[in-house]
Amino acid sequence: MKEHKSIRTATHWGVFDVQVTDGRITQVAPYPGDPDPSPIGQNLLDAVTDKSRITQPMVREGWLRDGPRYDGEGRGKEAFVPVSWDRALDLVASEISRVKTEFGNEAIFGGSYGWASSGRFHHSLSQLHRFLKTVGGYTASANSYSTGTARVIVPHVVGHAFFDVMEQQTTMPVVAESTELLVMFGGIPLKNAQVNYSGMTRHLYRDWLQKTKDNGCRFVNISPLADDAAGFLDAEWLAVTPNTDTALMLAIAHTLVQEGLHDQAFMKRYTHGFDKFCEYLDGSADGQAKDAHWAAGICGLSADAILALARQMAKSRTLITVAWALQRGHHGEQPYWMAITLAALLGQIGLPGGGFGFGYGAEGAVGLPERTPYRPTFRQGENQVRTFIPVARIADMLLHPGEDFDYNGQRLTYPDIRLVYWSGGNPYHHHQDLNRLRRAWQRPETIIIQDPWWTATARHGDIVLPATTSLERRDISCSATDDVLHAMDPVIAPVGEARDDYDIMSGLAARMGVSETFTEGRSSEEWLRHMYDVFKQQAAQDGVEVPSYEEFWQAGEFTYPQGDGRYVLFEEFRNDPDGHPLPTPSGKIEIYSETIAGFGYDDCPGHPTWLEPHEWLGAKEAVRHPLHLISNQPETRLHSQLDSGATSRGGKVGGREPITLNPRDAAGRQILAGDIVRVFNDRGSCLAGAVISDTVRPGVVRLATGAWYDPDEDGLDRHGNPNVLTKDVPTSSLSQGTAAHTSLVEVELYDKPAPKVRAFEAPKLAT
Known about the structure:
- This protein is an alpha/beta fold.
- The protein folds into three domains: 58-143 and 380-471 and 498-523, Rossmann fold; 157-371 and 567-599, Dimethylsulfoxide Reductase, domain 2 (3-Layer(aba) Sandwich); 620-749, Barwin-like endoglucanases (Beta Barrel), CATH 2.40.40.20.
- Helix content is 29%, strand content 17%.
- Strands 5-4-19-18-17-6 form a six-stranded mixed beta sheet. It has a six-stranded mixed beta barrel with strand order 24-28-25-27-26-29.
- Helix 4 (124-134) packs parallel to helix 19 (501-511), helix 7 runs parallel beside helix 8 and helix 9 packs antiparallel against helix 12 (292-299).
- The longest helix is centred in the N-terminal third of the chain and has 19 residues, at 85-103.
- 57% of the residues are buried.
- The mean pLDDT is 97.
């Protein structure tokens, strides 16, 4: 008789009831209370047990034969040798000890960037970082690919940390009630709202946007992509040239000032440096007025459309939203800084439904009212090594040890990395110019990868350790921007010889003599109970009664009590700027920043400025590569997670990632829907499956990120990973963020037999 059971689990893209029959996943059903569940959950059906799983510890053949060496040319090419867990852990512990002794802990890079699991305990990055801190520390990475630029510029302008601004920004109930005009730079794409860091219980964005529209709000989508705004919003589409949003904002600002439509009293009372900015805006500083006619020649919109938008914004309760994507372009600081400036000119910051906001829809809970102020937490401890790099500068660090670089007013030095330990992330998804990364990846003496799947990162490792997924272990899921904690029981047994990250790290800690420091004498179950009890005590201090650990586990979830969820960004500052000043040097919104000006960066001056990107449709390079590449987030997976799953594969064209072209661009290249095309520039090339749609602006192509990197012998990626094409340069000297959205390409019909995609095949084993 078959054994059937249903187990609830939580993921970054929702909560699901997983049906298991005789130990195999047979059905994935969404949480009953989720009004708009994500189809990404269906990837769990097959990806968790896919042939791309790493089933036992492996060591690259050349590394095992020759030992650590400053030559990693065999990475990604050589076969792997299966070894026992004892031997694998002995090798890892020996290597960490050797590098510590010979070069110091600074020579260990433990960046390990990635979303990993939604579980609060079995979170691979946290486990790795805690372990490395117990053995003396490691070189770390700062910020994120998603928001690395915003995290640096926003505190300079409004004083508060970027994520604090997003947590405090005007919530959707207030927007739905009060906003008359929603101007969306980069749109509010619902596909991005499927996911939320650390999980989400209910997908509510579609409902809140519908309520906002039903209340009479008008939407304007300023983006190269029409579907960055949901169709039911009936948004006006201003198909702007990519990377020119700052020029458009400047022209709107110029119109407001020249026509006397700006709030002069607000600018005087709440902002700093407006006079100096005006000298740039009206052209007295450089001889060029930033008016609508000037901007029209840059951003591809008519001057009349720009003037009309400015006047409409001035007479409406207007909320300006800016997608995270805009700060991932060259000079990505500028549109964020300029959006705040534009909102200040309208004088509506601190009013219900007005002002500005960042990242609405970028994750499923940004701008929603649900909150959990305390969460069960696995403490990482303190890193004794102070050396760090901005997260997007990995290749620079590996290629240029000892070289100096600028970052946010500091002069830092790249360390000489000898060992990389990466757990639960995929830099061969996140990073730009993958051919450059491959060259950089050859330089460390040893690379240790800990992951459930044979991603390209694992294939380019020396020692590869198989980890369990969240469906194979017991955990607690809870996001700071959700109101429900979920108990997560194992759904299936560990695949092959996969082990939990905690068990792997505990084994290493024992070998290195720090077992008690790392484990504190607790098993996994004891850590879960301890973390929950601390959470229970914190909640009690706020008068919230939390059930016992046993009661929570029996119920399967706990809902944290909520307030009315109505927040207006900077309402206290507006009402009392003297009693509640911003934590900036002036106490006000810094339209001009003496701090940034004092850094002396040519690529980030002291006020918002139009700076021409290194690659854009107005550059000379567009003659050779005339299409602007938008490498946005996919709708069938989270980043590269579960790319081998049914939903992700179902979205591919000819087994490759789809690339969307405007009909005009496709016709000029004799490309039809379903054709396999080659996308290329001087950095690399990849194959993709053509989709023809007028939802992309002419001169723009869209190729989402996350297809597992699959290069052939000549470097052609067979699967459609756009990061073989993106340029690995920083946004500016200020933030050193990624400029992935500033890349030009050409597309042509691939007229050869299409090679087989091998991204999901396990690498060859040594005979």
